[in-house]
Amino acid sequence: MPHDLARFVTAQAPQVVTVLEELRLGHKRSHWMWYFFPQLKSLGRSSTAQFYGITSLDEAVAYLQHEVLGPRLRECVSLMTAIATKPPKAFSGWWTP
Questions:
Q1: pLDDT tier, 63 (very low <50, low <70, confident <90, very high otherwise)
Q2: pTM to 2 decimals?
Q3: How many structural domains are present in the chain?
Q4: Is residue 80 part of a domain?
Q5: Containing domain of residue 22, as a range?
Q6: Most buried residue, 11, 23, 46, 85, by CB count within 10 Å?
């Protein structure tokens, strides 16, 4: 079953540089979490979280295997983990030290 992964590529395209910079600096300033770090659709409450929610293990695997999305997610996670002084939830936008 094909998945609409284009929704992620389209949403990410104009923000890639900004997101990578925010991750390098360790401070999230803009709104992009839904489509760079998608969660299970069943966990989302907002219409945005629902739209970008991953519906199944099959879709999650397809996301990771996608030629653009997989490497980009790995790069983003790598940047987050390189900043050992901040917990991952610091990047969600609501955490305050």
A1: very high
A2: 0.83
A3: 1
A4: yes
A5: 6-91
A6: 23
Residue 18 has what pLDDT? 96
Looking up residue 59, the CATH number of its domain turns out to be 1.25.40.380
Note whether residue 97 is domain-resident: no
CA 81 – CA 75 distance, rounded (Å): 10
Buried b (16+ CB within 10 A) or exposed e, 54-77: beeeebeebbeebeebeebbeebe
Contact 58/45 with Cβ under 8 angstroms? no
Q: How many residues does the chain have?
A: 97
User: In this structure, are residues 20 and 76 in contact, taking their beta carbons and an 8 Å threshold?
Assistant: yes
Does residue 1 lie within any of the structural domains? no
What is the SS3 assignment for 21?
Answer: helix
